[in-house]
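Q: Structure tokens for this one, please.
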Amino acid sequence: MLGAFSLIPAFPLADGRILRAVLVKCNRNYNAATRIVVRTRRIMSLLLPVAMSILYLPMLLMRIQIK
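A: Here is the predicted structure, written as tokens:
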């Protein structure tokens, strides 16, 4: 789980910098690559809580019903 979480391309983390480096190699434009990584980070920051709610809410509800 921790390994999968560390692969999320959020900009301040190392994977965001890796994604930006790959995009700079492809596009040759540092500013455009930074904008793409920041946009990706924003999308991930919105999707991650939704995904965690969908995955863990049923388990939480089952645990409440058992007790």
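A few notes: The radius of gyration is 17 Å. The chain has one domain: 2-66.
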